[in-house]
Write a structure and sequence with these properties.
The protein is α+β, with helices and mostly antiparallel strands. The protein contains nine helices and ten strands. It folds into two domains: 140 residues, Jelly Rolls (Sandwich), CATH 2.60.120; 109 residues, Arc Repressor Mutant, subunit A (Orthogonal Bundle), CATH 1.10.10.
Length: 276
């Protein structure tokens, strides 16, 4: 799944939705697209790097090929070369980062697209870049440049086949992935532990954590907290409920716990996010 440009058909989120957040300088254009339904057809003039923060389902096609159903994992890394037409549609969508180099060339461009890749370095850089984009008035151009370059290098390594792969990822089959994602979706607002996820797959907690990170680019703990934050973000936008109530409804142990996670991962506290 790769979103390039966005034509919205209808929003699946009631109430307010987050805006498209954009950063641009002489070299880079970075867009943080909100979680909402979309339909787009696009042929980029320059290569595009993408990163999906949420699991998504829909239909897509590359380079004029026939439409295919997709079920993309959370934290999926993508690359689209210049001139490669993309069609993509999703009824639910997901938060998505799009990075375009406006001038110069990628270090070692190739004419091959990829999508829904798990890459630990790319995942870490994409989450840090999202944090910078959300900061708005206090963005650091040097940090944004460095993170965009990190993602560019990660894409080049995958295209060249030089990125080392962790064999533990082979244990995280599609069936196991769906099982874990279903448990997190059903129980993120409860006291869910990594040990319980591992037990559901009959794996040790240590090996499960390694296999999960190899497959998703994030630890199981990160995945649970990411889902809680996403739920809290929706509630902050759609309701005027007290922050303590939103924290408990989203699975955080307290208002303070939610505030700490928002500050660490998004660069702002929940009350600041609500005002944006």
């Amino acid at each position: 799944m790769l979103r390039c440009g966005m034509t919205t058909t209808h929003s699946m989120v009631t109430g307010s939705t987050e805006p498209v957040r954009t950063y641009e300088d002489t070299t880079w254009r970075v867009e943080l697209l909100p979680r909402q339904a979309y339909e787009t057809r696009y042929t980029p003039e320059r290569p595009v790097i993408g990163f999906a923060f949420d699991r998504q389902n829909g239909v897509h096609a590359f380079a004029g090929d026939r439409n295919r159903d997709f079920a993309a994992r959370a934290n999926g890394f993508a690359y689209l070369p210049a001139g490669c037409e993309i069609y993509s549609r999703s009824e639910g969508g997901g938060e998505y980062l799009r990075i375009l180099r406006k001038n110069g060339q990628y270090a070692r461009p190739r004419e091959r697209h990829f999508s829904d890749m798990a890459d630990r370095a790319a995942t870490d850089s994409a989450h840090r870049l999202r944090r910078e984009i959300l900061l708005q008035d206090t963005r650091d151009p040097l940090t944004i440049e460095a993170l965009a370059l990190d993602l560019e290098r990660a894409a080049t390594a995958i295209i060249d086949g030089s990125e080392p792969r962790d064999l533990a990822a082979q244990w995280m089959t599609q069936r196991r992935m769906k099982r874990v994602e279903a448990i997190i979706e059903a129980r993120f607002a409860q006291a869910l532990t990594v040990a319980e996820l591992a037990e559901a797959l009959d794996l040790s907690a240590d090996f499960f954590t390694r296999a999960f990170r190899a497959a998703f680019g994030r630890t199981p703990r990160d995945a649970i907290i990411d889902r809680r934050i996403r739920h809290a973000r929706d509630l902050l936008l759609k309701s005027d409920a007290p922050l303590a109530a939103i924290a408990l409804a989203s699975g955080f142990s307290s208002h303070a716990h939610m505030t700490a996670q928002f500050s660490q991962r998004l660069g702002m506290c929940p009350s600041q996010f609500r005002r944006t």
